[in-house]
Amino acid sequence: LSARPQGVGLVELSELTGLHKSTTHRLLACLGAMGYVVKDSQSGRYRLTYKLLELSNAMLEDMDVLSVAKPHLDQLSQRTGETVHLMVPEGTQGVYIYKSDVTGQGQMRSKVGLQVPLVVTAAGKAMLATGSDEEARRVWAQSDHTPLTEHTITDEAAFLADLARARSDGWAVDDEENELGVRCVGAAVPDYRGRAVAAMSISANAARMTPQRVAELAGQLLACRDSICQDLGLRPGP
């Protein structure tokens, strides 16, 4: 039924499901009584109602991204030997809700609860890249553009170009824009609409984050993101 929003007749639905017509009718009657299916009075076709959204919304509200992502992030940190973060959006800011530093390096100033501008972090840019340029411009206009380092992007065109690359690649980069000496790669964790509910990132000393190393870590980051999406029952990002 979900694949046929205009509705399906009883005989066709019986053939599609491989069920006897009487069985199909009984199931439809049951779903109709519960409010999930309705029969069009004009065409006689059956279609789904919006009540299904109640089920999906209840599931999404109860979904705890952190609890699902945590073991994956720890494994990624262990596997790469680098610091891994999970961030959620809060207006124009991103909030770190988890940090995995299993190697015990502890050299970065990031910590759980710290808020940072979305526009200067790999995770933040990855989240913004799941939306439109118009939305990104709105966040940019509302953000403070006081440079945090000599590498902080303060030009809107350069920022939007970064987002375009992130959409194309599936991951974003923070090239010492938020913290001097730290280079990061980030990828969004999308919801069922493809919009970011969170983002994860790998951060490391800029000296060892060569282009080759960045590309290698980005591949591992995306694989980890896809595993998290699979466990959440969500479609992986691009």
Describe this structure in words.
This protein is α+β, with helices and mostly antiparallel strands and about 240 residues long. The chain has helices at about 10-15, 20-35, 50-60, 65-80, 120-130, 135-140, 155-170, 210-230; strands spanning about 35-40, 45-50, 85-90, 95-100, 115, 170-175, 180-190, 195-205. Helix 1 (about 10-15) packs across helix 2 and helix 4 (about 65-80) runs antiparallel to helix 8 (about 210-230). About 35% of the residues are buried.
Overall geometry: elongated
Oligomer: single chain
What is the string of helix and strand elements?
HHEEHHEEEHHHEEEH
Main β-sheet, in a few words?
A: 6 strands, antiparallel
Q: Give me the Rg, rounded.
A: 23 Å
Distance between the termini: 27 Å
Please give the number of β-strands.
8
Helix/strand class: alpha+beta
Residues in β-strands, percent: 15-25%
- Summarize model confidence as the mean pLDDT: 89
Enumerate the spans where pLDDT stays under 50 for 5 or more consecutive residues: none
Task: For the largest sheet, list the strands in their spatial order.
Answer: 5-4-3-8-7-6
**Helicity, as a percent range:** 40-55%
- Give me the number of helical elements: 8
Blueprint of the fold:
Blueprint: H1 10-17, H2 21-33, E1 37-39, E2 46-48, H3 52-62, H4 65-80, E3 83-90, E4 93-100, E5 115-117, H5 122-128, H6 133-142, H7 156-169, E6 172-175, E7 182-190, E8 196-205, H8 211-232
Antiparallel strand pairs: 1-2, 3-4, 3-8, 4-5, 6-7, 7-8
Helix pairs in contact: 1-2, 4-8
